[in-house]
## 1
Amino acid sequence: MKQPRTLFEKIWDRHSITTNEAGQTLLFIDRHFCHELSFHAFNMLHGNNRMVRHPERTFAIPDHYTPTTGLEDKDYIDADTQALVENLIKNATRNKLNLFDLGDDRRGIIHVVGPEQGITQPGTIIVCGDSHTSTHGALGALAFGIGASDVSHVLATQTLWQPKPKSMRVTVKGKRPIGVTAKDIILAIIGHIGAAGGTGHVIEYAGPIIQDLTIDERLTVCNMSIEAGARAGMIPPDNTTYRHLKGRPFAPQGEAWEKAEEFWRTLPTDTAATFEREETLDATSIEPMVTWGTSPEDVIPVSGAIPDPKLETDPKRQTALNRKMEYMGLKPGQLVSDIKVDRVFIGSCTNSRIEDLRDAAEVLKNRTVCIPAIIVPGSGLIREQAEQEGLDQIFEAAGVEWRPAAGCSMCIGVNGDSVKNEERCASTSNRNFEGRQGRGARTHLVSPAMAAAAAISGRFTDVRKMGKN
């Protein structure tokens, strides 16, 4: 009788080639995504007179440095960023990779495009030179970010040496409150276990609330697993997964689909399997969440107040809290609802999918924003769908800037979309680190609905209290 295994263990074992004396496992990699910053890896590859080993398994998608105002030469912030984009296209063409070029409507943020196109599939191992590769775990894949030397190794061999992480399960129990989104759930989880809570582990999310999430919502949860320190985040595949994948361009077709689905149904964690760590969160008490500091773990409900560092007994922790408070320009005891916001960003690989845009549109409909706000779709196809549904008209009528080109945009701020020094931004992205959205920028992470509410009121507002519009 086989020993019960977790979803993670099943995928790891299936891809294991050999183990070295240091305890590392050589894994076969199913899918490899590359963006503009992969140029270091291509330089190493070509410097050794090598070509990509499996171009059919490699996908090149420019997203970090592409302008969202358009894709003409004039739209780039400078010649250097344009050169990075052009270099990726050149390397992809040279190696005959799957390229989603600038004029391709399918192009967008890698972690949006993969699931949208059916490239992301259950039971696969997916890597990319980007920490938020964990997003793809929402479809039952093992997905994680890697460094430049590892990117080069995968390009050359389609394999990768990795130490085996530990397994961890986070179960969300109780009833999901009305008005609480997937973004609120994952922020609450990070606040519960801490920014280092998942270090050294692969997190599997479980419980009826997780099972009831849509694919777009699952992608949001797994996207931010890295912000809890985890190596990856995963949700077992189920009928929701299969419905999402069926008919997508890169998904199996015909008899191949039937065989794939039969295999996928063997992947979920066995009932008797054990995890090296278990955490439980009661969703009943979750509210719309807002981060206040410079780490996603610095999160409180919109009804809450900024914590007082003086109540912290650990001197180092107290110093860190004071530093965060100073950078963010906040005061102990200050109500979240009293914090004024200067601008709003809705987008990123966390919250730029069609359901995110619908959530924002529902709040913005028949209302007008009082501060600058931009919305950047996660892919060209999402932009097209949003416009077919008339969401763009709602955004524009509300005074929101609807960007014509997909990309990472203000999440990381390297393409010209950034937040000014000491400006406060309500952002649907995944990181609120110092300088993440621009030098001196003050970032507060929220859901699309909460970001839209902030754009209307000019401060953090409990979207549940805004009523129907």
## 2
Amino acid sequence: MINAPKGTKDILPKDSYKWQFIERTARETAAVYNADEIRTPTFEHTEVFQRGVGETTDIVNKEMYTFLDKGGRSITLKPEGTAGVARAFVENGMQSTALPVKMYYITQCFRYERPQAGRLREFHQFGVEFIGSFEPSTDAEVILLAKSFLDKLGIKDISLRINSIGCKKCRAGYQTALKNYLSEKRDGLCELCKERLGKNPMRVLDCKNKECASIMAGAPLITDYICDECRSHLEKTTKLLESAGVKFVIDPKIVRGLDYYTRTVFEFVSENIGAQGTVLGGGRYDGLISQFGGTEVPGIGFAAGLERLLLVMENTGVVIPEKRSVKIYFAPMGEKESERAFALAQTLRGLKIACDTDHMKRGIKSQFKYADKIGAEYVGVIGSDEYERGTVKIKNMADGSEREVGDEDIIKFLNGEI
């Protein structure tokens, strides 16, 4: 037997309605904020992620699925959504359209990492990108979109944490202070963080190693180094959130894990998924578009892993609306009856009424068992007598009541009109 690769998971028909609920909620929420869907390729030239995500990040260094195609080009499966959207924005000349451009995506992503609860090697993301505005109101709107999405899913007991990691100008001073602090404690850092220290010391903030985390507890805080302009941007953003009734905590230790972030960064955190507490995170990336050859166009966005969202929903008892049941199952008792059942089913499907009929030549008892398993609301029995009279004996599966209805009246019956 061939099994699915490690870190991947089949989404079976019995569970797909859960995913459809999340995806439908994502699309509906994005539409309210005037965001349109963008679909980018599953794989990109590796340089897209080296430029966008950052060569010093764990994603680029350790987690990307990268290979040479038959033309000898380095190709990488999408590890996250933002870099590909930024590339598409520039390549398709979207900077010359009406700004801001509001986009969302629901996509598969791939990272080679240790599989754990809510985190797989092939996973799914819902992401939002608003590109074109420097205004704090854009930051607040993206955060409100994220909160609205989580609220509509029914997820409770989550907290919003927000921070500013400054701009290139003020971050340089923080990088120097952090590097000086870490240099004195270099011997206590893990080998990877020793490398990060020389390339990008802020990456040490993301390390999950306990010794490194202990060292970072006493590290300088970015909020002590941001310039007046960045501080004002954060204050205006939080003021708008307060006016919208959103509670939040300023958390100076949030930096996010990708190099393209600037100024506002934020996370929605849950206590219901163990160590992996972040269910949605994002931030501003004012320098990303220019890295792909575009002009200095700012942007802000977020992404949420669907697997992790499902885990939170399961752990907190969120009831996901089940898939729409079959309205009626036609149970024929012979060959000519099967032909009529088939025709009736097709007529109802043309009217967008969910129905089904037998394809296994089952006996009538077995057909009733099957109808019950698929959640049929009614079973329409067509025996020889019903066939001759041009009727269907319809049984309500909830209360057991029965009624014989002519073919021409089936739709009226199902609609409650007779």
## 3
Amino acid sequence: MKKIIMVKYAELTTKKCNRNFFIETLEKNILTSLTDIDIKITKDYYRMFIETKEENIDKCMNSLTKIFGIHGVCLCYFTTEKDESEINTLSSYVINENKTFKVVTNRSDKTFPINSMELSRKVGAYLLKNIKGLKVNVHAPEITVNIEIRQEGIYIYGETLKGMGGYPTGTLGKALLMLSGGLDSIVAGFLTMKRGVKLDFLYFESLPHTSLEARDKVIKLAKILKEYGNTGSIYVVPFTKIQESIYKNMDNTYMITIMRRMMYRIATKFAKIIKANAIVNGESIGQVASQTLTSMKVVNDVTSFPIIRPLAAFDKLEIIDIAKKIGSYEISILPYMDCCTVFVPPHPVINPHISVALKEEEKFNFDLIEEALENIIKIDLTEKEEFNDLL
């Protein structure tokens, strides 16, 4: 007998011809996430099994629950001895006294002589006789004893830790996340990754109006997303000259609208450079002046590139709930301003007109966009020592 971690796939069951690709990608993401743990992975069309030293099991299982593409994680007792006595003994390991329970058997190895219903009944009877205070409850048991009889042996487990679900990150292409230090964009990135999309990050920085502490905040947020799947790099856009030009030369009420249009122009050009398939942001309808439908339409006018807004219909409380769940909330509320919170006019236009925006942009030197693109800084999230060098 030995302990093995069983990984149950999530939405991979909906994939037919491409299923092996999804499983292979999930394996790569697991290996990336568990680089500091010595593990051995075996897999088939329906399950993945991970072996590691017993002292690493808890850490390994906790990490697995954060990886997209996993429905559930179980600690199994595994044996190659296919006899009823061994099954009874191992089943007793996964149940406690004074609990309600049921036994569920899945017999994919049809050479095993006892069918699923009969084996569940026999094991249940053994547990009732040998463990104090047990009661059968087939509808809402406190513990389910699961028995899987497969060709290579028998797996027995109780509790299943819930996984993140979704698709393995990287199976459905790459996108560029417009990442700020606030609550919204990081949550938008999390939801996009859940659909199998790998992310690179674009951060607009306006030194000295913003600080290196604000950049470090964004790095920490990106590292949180990296815990949930394979991510790319952070690209820092020097945005100071563009913001100062907008502030000095343009209609005060249109500052935010023009700023967002410039951001979209840069994001579109850069997404094409890195071969991303879409741009992702944290916009939520009506949350701020630049996120009314009219504003979104005017801002979006500068690009034909696909824009994904996972939070479009979310309210702030829903966004906060997810931020707390994924561990980004406490970082996002740190009081370091980013470029979206400097130069904010007292009365930004809520329903901008495209004709006014175009007229204002006649005052703008568009060479500044090319200059910003040429001076983008890349931060590789895999190089831990680089973070300290930036501050």
## 4
Amino acid sequence: MALFGPKRFVGLDIGSHAIKAVELAGAGGKYRVVHAGFAETPPGAVKEGAVVEPQALGLAIRQVIAKAGIKPGRVVSAVGGQAVIVRELKLPPMSEDELKQAARFEAERYIPYGVREVNMDFDVIGETTEDNQRKIVVLLVAARRDIVDKHVQALESGGVEPFVLDVESFAVIRALDTQGRTGGNGAATVFVDLGGETTDIVITEGDQLRLTRNINVGGDSLTKAVATRLDMEFQSAAQVKEEKGVVLLEGEPLPEDRTVSAVHDAMLPILGDLATEVRRSMDYFQTRWRESRVGRVVLSGGTARLANLDRFLSLELGVETVVGDPFAKCEVADRVLPAEQRKQVAPAMATAVGLALRGTVER
């Protein structure tokens, strides 16, 4: 008997600023959002994508699950940010046992600590030919064992059972893949997931993962810039950014509210850095896959809600940029998330929705 009833799956996203939970029910190839909830993460409980205070998080998880109306049970959660290393390996064809040995050996080249200190997994994602030699393409994922253990401790302290531990950026792609492909004519998609402390930049082409990067630019970077510019505390700056944060575009009328202009001026250098890093990722992709092109950039994360950010990046990158909506392929009743609230929180819920979708393939 399924713990959540027939065909129900829960995704739990633990971020540095917020905990998000989504329960999906599958029906006829489509999905319905049964419950959804979110709450602030206890200050300092998550740093750089890693859980540092499992007990404090456990209490917050219990509150989110209860408030959302989700029955405690199995959940799909994820680690991300700088806590995870993702690499693509190209190896000669070999048996599964040989592949395990080879992947572990290759991992030592990319992991800055001992292989015995990590939890590691890999998957064969395709084949290629190099120098007339057939190679298998292997996706390697590794995370430090102590980081995984603390994440699991937080979940168990929250009264839920970790069913699968995924990678945050993979969950985002899963939730937004339809929007990434729409209008792309087979072109590559750049997913930009804007977290509180860091941002994940992932490029996919068809079903292939082409590039994944994590950069030290996030919503907090913008808030700190506003706090410095307006000479105020971080929390006050966060509220001002939320209420008056707008990216002003060249050629459009300036606002009468001077605070809006001041907030924009404070954020602009950080946004410029973000655009530069996304462009570098795109340039690297084009260098390796010269016949490919990028068709669309899809934004997610709480900072994706910043007014005009999509238009700003589209102008800077020369590529169509949209704000992702993970609920686009789900039925969402107003009693679960009223339309206006859904529009407001959707970009931040991408990881949680993607995690719940992962549950559908791990029955």
